[in-house]
Amino acid sequence: MSHIFPRHTAMRLPRAVKGEGSYIIDENGKRYLDASGGAAVSCLGHSNAMVRAALHAQLDEIAFAHTAYFTSAAAEELADALIEVAPEGLGRVYIVSSGSETTEAAIKLARQYHLEKGDSERSRIIARKQSYHGNTLGALSAGGNMWRREPFEPLLLDMSHIEPCYAYRYKGEHESLEDYGIRAANALENEILRVGPETVAAFMAEPVVGATMGAVPAAPGYFRRIREICDKYGVLLILDEVMCGMGRTGTLFASEAEHVRPDIVCIAKGLGAGYQPVGAMICSDEIYHAIEVGSGYFQHGHTYVGHPMAAAAALAVVKQLTSADMMPRINRSGEKLMALLRERFADHPHIGDIRGRGLFLGLELVWNRDTKEPFVPAVRLHARIKKNAFEHGLICYPMGGTIDGKHGDHVMLAPPFIVEDQQIEEIVDRLEQAINDSLSETGMP
Hints:
Layout: E1 16-20, E2 23-26, E3 31-34, H1 37-40, H2 49-61, H3 73-85, E4 90-96, H4 99-116, E5 124-128, H5 137-142, H6 146-149, E6 160-162, H7 167-170, H8 177-195, E7 200-205, E8 208-209, E9 216-217, H9 222-233, E10 236-240, E11 264-267, E12 279-284, H10 285-293, H11 308-321, H12 326-345, E13 351-357, E14 360-365, H13 381-391, E15 394-395, E16 397-400, E17 409-413, H14 421-441
């Protein structure tokens, strides 16, 4: 009997014993093509020699030194490497152990920044419905994922949530993408004015929405308008790139494609590529300076922030992500995967939308393509697809509640950046089989 507390008590999971490139192998020798990188984590695959060597070397030097007393060469070098490629104006890196920690730290830093400047009324965070920013209480409060929030509502902080930028569902029939993007962004200004500009500390959003909606990019111009609104009212812009950053959407930082500079950006997942638990909050020089000339102390921290082993792994990952051929490779593979998905599913009666950017792609399933009506939640189509795909040796990332936390199903794909053309074809073949098997189980033709 296992003494592990699993994610679900009814689950009996196979034991992973080995990783080889884009595959995970279980104790029985079955190979699983990891088409979602776990949760968009394993961007370099499961046996990267450079990261493994960096971890061995760091272990031979020092594994841990508490940041109340020491810094480390690994942490300093990682911070230097990130700032060298970060959006202009970002100058300080706070290294943590997870995505939830990065967003939690960002929320607290936004509040403290305004306090240091004497704006004590600014405490409200505005985020978006159908977003996901992590599972700690502050991050969960900012997130708009209803089913994750519901059990803990009495514990959550009072934050505002505006509609997401979700063209497939909300763009008017005769509205251009650009016009829709501006209209969706203006919801932020409306909410700022509703609650009072003097009370708002920050707006937090994912440049490409991940788990909750399934690789949904913003409409053109959306984030440029968001930046204008934030600047107008003195509101900080926090971009959560935990899932969509570090090359996942074809640029190192997802904000590059939006042509905006955040005040704070949160990264994790692909930063460590699964080799160590690591994340980083990167803030502007202006925010850091406010702390520096004010109290001098960021009133936040965890035992393992700046962990040398985590930083060493992340540094080895960043060196590979910033190599000259990595982003072109991601975009070439992403274009091939998108083309195959469209070839296979564009006319499928129950695939309503195929979307995403880079190697971060999603399919939204619908009962009726013409009306975009979703399957009823009781069918649990996403869960069927996950199970059937796994049986076929494919790891993908299906979820339900795409539209409002209860209705809608999608499948997200986020394969390793090292994925080969043959494996891309394998992903689409196995996914098609899993979707069709799942629809057959529901009695669909």
